[in-house]
Amino acid sequence: MLLKAIISVLLFSSVTSAQAQTARPFKGAWYADGLYVDIDFYGKSISDPNSMDGDPCAGIIRIKPDDTSMAYTIENLKMSGNRATATAYFAEKDSKLSFEYMADGSLKMTSSDGFSYVDDELKKLPQNSYVLHRASPFNGEWKLAKGDGTLRINLYYKSMYEENAEGGSEMCYGTIYVAYGNGMKVDNSLIRARKIEGNKAVIEYVGGRDGNTYRAVLVYNPSTRQITVKSPVSVGASGGVKESFVVDGMVFTRR
To answer: I need a labelling partner for 114 at 20 to 30 A (CA). Which of 5, 9, 23, 226 fits?
Structure first.
């Protein structure tokens, strides 16, 4: 009887959790090849890059986000259960959108006339319909479990401006900040490239102390919500001194 009771509680918790996750499906960041979508169809809290003052809107669609600044503003919402329709605006162009939250947690987005962007000339993504996945788990901020350090990343959209080793400003996927001696010695490494495979991501980053390029694997543990750094190595480094504070086995805990 006790075992049956425990199983019943676990099943109830699982169902409750699933219901909570789908209660507001049209909120959060999503991505697919060539697309990054940030939406809040309930609170309209997304800053509109097409507005002079960054006015709040229902969402934005970024086309080729790593290469261009193209962004569509989402407005004119109509929601019904796990489906929604909207209009996407850019300059004087608009297109009709449909959204469907799928049973597996993905989001299907379809445009009436495709997704256009400018790259020397007006181009379009190859499809009018895409299945988007949550921009997770490599999106957010983690604290070094032992020591002074912060991992701040969004590996799904290159959107962070940070100071590089030369003192200039550079757009990147995030930073690995590690400090010693009460902040007297600091290494702020910028992540320039990444390849994501589920709960693992291979990253390339530039050391904040030596300017050399390194590669490492980030491993996300869903049960602890921690990220561990694995096998950092220098790649194409110059003949100078290598001095990186990012080492194998570093564990970052979600803030």
So the answer is: 23
